[in-house]
TrEMBL record:
Organism: Novosphingobium organovorum
Reaction it catalyzes: beta-D-fructose 1-phosphate + ATP = beta-D-fructose 1,6-bisphosphate + ADP + H(+)
PROSITE patterns cross-referenced by the UniProt entry: PFKB_KINASES_1 (PS00583), PFKB_KINASES_2 (PS00584)
Protein task: Catalyzes the ATP-dependent phosphorylation of fructose-l-phosphate to fructose-l,6-bisphosphate.
Family: Belongs to the carbohydrate kinase PfkB family.
Domain of life: Bacteria
Official protein name in the record: Phosphofructokinase
NCBIfam families associated with the record: 1-PFK (TIGR03168), pfkB (TIGR03828)
Family matches, as InterPro entries: 1-PFruKinase (IPR022463), Carboh/pur_kinase_PfkB_CS (IPR002173), PfkB_dom (IPR011611), Ribokinase-like (IPR029056), Tagatose/fructose_Pkinase (IPR017583)
GO MF annotation list: 1-phosphofructokinase activity
Location of the Carbohydrate kinase PfkB domain: 7-291
Signal sequence extent: none
Keywords of this entry: ATP-binding, Kinase, Nucleotide-binding, Transferase
Amino acid sequence: MRVLTVTFNPAIDQTVTLDRLVPGEVHRAHAVRQNAGGKGVNVASCLADWGLPVAAYGLLGSDNAASFDALLGAKRIEDRFIRIPGATRVNLKLVDAAGTTDINLDGIAIDLGRAEMVAATIGEAAQAEDIVVLAGSLPPGCPPDTYAALTHRLSAKGCRVVLDTSGLPLKCALEGSVLPRVIKPNRHELAQFLGRDLPDGAALVAAAQALQTRGVGLVVVSMGEDGALFVSREGALCARLAIGRLASTVGAGDAMVAGIVAALAEGASLERTARLATAFAVAKLGMAGPNLPDLASVEALAAEVVIAPATGGEALGEALSAGEQ
Ligand SMILES: Nc1ncnc2c1ncn2[C@@H]1O[C@H](COP(=O)(O)OP(=O)(O)OP(=O)(O)O)[C@@H](O)[C@H]1O
Ligand SMILES: O=P(O)(O)OC[C@@]1(O)O[C@H](CO)[C@@H](O)[C@@H]1O
């Protein structure tokens, strides 16, 4: 069993820290930091910290690949990126007291040939039982059904596909004839996919259960500080853990995906999956960049995660508060 991550549209994340973001005003920044990112890269980085062997696939602009070379090299992540002419996008993350404002660019435009080249590289490399993480947006020119087609191809080889994307690529994948093993939308992405509001916990649970019944093995809906919902054939759980130190919220969802993959790799129960995924996310919140602390610290967090059943349509918040008492 190996883990392969796929990032068609990586990004260099430039995190700028300000007092207060006011549209239209001149700001003096306190600090600025850059790190190699993009959802699949962040997942690979957290999994490497956890000690799993990972290979990272996708496309990288050859003009500014140095931070990716450094990250992949330092963490011994197998570098399977195809270099293409141009510069990988730089995404702005504006951090102030109210939270993080993301300004994500489109990325390097590609043609069908490039998209097919990446798909062929992964399709050939992946083997039965491998876990393949398809994560992030698709760059301009990449067909929106790219993840749907890859899910079909990889599942036919016996791979377990974990999908974390949004918008049209998510819609295509969930309307395909073969569904991913795992999806992790946040609640806004799930509402967008369904084309309707999910006003409360009961609506979220019902939506996640409907997807699971249609054939997605594990549906995880992340909800920021409200924790996350985990639905599989074993049942429906909600999980939450209060954060300690907050260093950066960027990539918390990716760390959660990494935790889900770590749990899949151990053949974990739904409860262990919820604990590990939440612990990864909260551990990452304490770190700048897509990094985890040492394994013992993550396991200690996993033991502290508050788990509650999310059956019967009760509000998630109520279930979790009851679990905390
Ligand atoms: N403020 C917080 N307090 C406690 N847990 C948090 C907080 N923010 C995030 N988390 C944890 O991280 C998980 C993922 O966060 P979130 O739902 O924001 O993901 P996301 O929208 O996919 O984020 P991103 O795109 O930045 O990776 C949550 O389900 C939760 O477990
Ligand atoms: O534009 P996408 O591909 O949807 O998201 C890209 C991104 O916001 O995702 C990561 C955080 O999850 C960041 O490293 C990166 O900038």
